[in-house]
What does this fold into?
Amino acid sequence: MDFSSPFADLAKVLMLHWVVTLLQFGAFISPAGSNIANVASAAYMVQNLAETGFFPRKLATVHPRYGTARPAMWLNLGFSVLLLVTVGHSWHALASVISAAMVISYLIGPIAVGVFRRTRPDLPRPFRLPAAGVLAPLTFAFAACALYWSKWPDTGKVALLTVVAAPVAAVVLRRRGVTGLRRQFAPAWWLVGFLAWMSVLSALGSRDFGGHGVLPGGVDIALVALSAVAFYFWAVRAGVHAHRVGLTGSGPGLEGPAGSGPVLDGRTASPASSVVAPEDSRPTASV
It folds into this structure.
């Protein structure tokens, strides 16, 4: 017994063949359910990018009967195949990269909580989070450790793919007539620095996590966690400063003065020029 599938192996030892069949069938069905959720959420992100002008508006088209953004799904399919051919080279390798990329998305939640608690403490909160001042940086540190545990070189690949989005966003903003790009990107430099720092730590970390063994085990994880807390406070401070100087766009708690539209590059836009589609009536919630 090698316990590569421990529950199935134990069922074989106990001669429970029907349990083995049930477990193997569940192992086949369960990832399919997760993939369906991922297809929907990824298409939703593309749809939002199209609605805010970063992607062509055609990608935000929703099927009149099924309510799904099929053009966005086709785009994600093509991008997935491109990643499989260029970055992954195998399904297992691509799954590792995607898992690391999902961890990066988890980093934003704690920062959003920290920023909203300082900029809009009066927002309605259907979900109450006590001790957010402690839990948010702690959660960010755990997410940073999870990114480190994704192992080198996957951490470097994901960091590179994420940073590549910065010049793409700059080109789109320039074409939309937004000026002062240096000022626009000022609140996001923490993310560039964080990803670069995590890539360096991952490359120099212990061999258990794919590194070159320069940093011994235990020391590497402690360094990741402690530095992540520092990056958290940097990110929250940058978000609060962006809100105060009027760099925030539209959204819950991100508006300009009362009765005005969103603020882009320090200038208040009219409600008709909002970057969010006016027919978008999806509910929002804050924590």
Observations:
- Residues 250-287 have pLDDT under 50 and may be disordered.
